Each structure stands twice: as C-alpha cells, then as structure tokens.
Amino acid sequence: MTNPSLVIFDCDGVLVDSEPVAGAMFSEFVRAEGYSGSHEDCLVTFRGRSMVSAVEIIEADIGRALGDDWPERVEEAVMAVFLEALDPIEHIHHVTDAVRRAGLASCVASSSRMPHIVNSVTKIGLVDHFSENLFSASMVENGKPAPDLFLHAARSMGEGPATSVVIEDSLPGVQAGIAAGMKVFGYAGDPQTNAQALTNAGAIVFDDMRKLPALIGI
Q1: How do residues 139-150 score in pLDDT, each as one tens digit?
Q2: Tell me: the pLDDT tens digits for 101-153?
Q3: Residue 150: which of 3, 7, 39, 4 has the closest Cα?
C-alpha cells in the first residue's frame, strides 16, 4: 500500500478500556435469554460485533426472537456504567499525538452506537482530536465483520482503502478491515485477546500502543 493518510480507530478495546466490563455485562444478558454458550464463549463470540450481528447469532441459537427493546435495554445498562467511569487504553494519547504531528487524518469507526462513542472520546479527552469524525455501525447496513463501516468511514473522510489503516482489537474488526482492503493493526494488550487469531486473520499484531506509530510508519 501507499503511505497512509487516514488512521481509523476502533473504540472499545482500542481507545477505551471498556471491553472487560462491557463483555461481562453483555454475557449476563445473553445467557439470561437462554444462549447456549458459556461466559467465556460469549466474550469471544460477541467481542467487536455490532448489535445487529450479535442479535442474529443469539436468536439463531435460542430459536426465538428477542424483544424489540432488548438491544436498548442492554446498551442502557452498559452506558449507565460507562457514564460513571471509563479509562483510556494505556498510551493511546501517545498514538493520537503522533498521528496529529504526522499530519494524518483520523477517525473512529465502532460497532457501538453513537452516544457511547461520543461519551468514550469525551471521557478520555479525545473529543477535540476526533471532532465530528465518528462513525457507528448504525450508519451502515452490515456491521463488522462486513467491511461496510470501514469503507463508509474512509469514504466520508475522502480516502480509499489503499491510503487507510485500521486499528482493531477484535477478530470481527480485523476481518472487516481486511475485507475492506485496508492494512490492519491488531492490538493485543488485553490478556483476553487472542493474538494468534488476529494474526491468522491478517492483522499486524502488537501489544503496546507505544509501538504503533513506528509500525504505521510515522
């Protein structure tokens, strides 16, 4: 690929350290509906997926439709926790500072809904860095692992796959970035992350945000 002009960041697990809490809460809701997988299975299966994609998997497993308000109830419960406390991924400001100094454009493309994305970048002091360049899976027809969201984000930023790089921490996210034709860097700083799975899916895997600027080439 040519030198990147755009860096696309996932939100949960890349910008904010929310995956452990969100994953545990989502697992509780899912298994209360009768989902057959274990807590550990839930953490792997639903990490990085859009709500639409997750609901499809759950409904296929339990053999019935979830209530229309189920996604909203889950997200409201998670948001209530995140409104109180949300920590940045260690050294993420080192990365965003390097991206800014290099003159690269950057944006967020997340499976979460927009209120959570806005709250996240605000809580960790990056709302000015990303400005209005925030993109949610609710904006496209198909969420991750489909490439729609990353392609939409790049197109909205005036870039194409060849000049865009993706920073992800989940397998569906890596798959989405690869399907979009973009170079993908997989963050595996969380012990729960399956680094080998990210590598197998095509990501360049790293475990410390301080390493990322050099990997990108800035």
Answers
A1: 999 999 999 999
A2: 999 999 999 998 898 899 899 999 999 999 999 999 999 999 999 999 999 99
A3: 7
Return the CATH number of 6-17+86-216, one of 1.10.8.420, 3.40.50.1000, 3.30.70.20, 3.40.50.10750.
3.40.50.1000
The reported pTM is: 0.81
Give me the residue spans of the domains in the chain: 6-17+86-216, 19-82
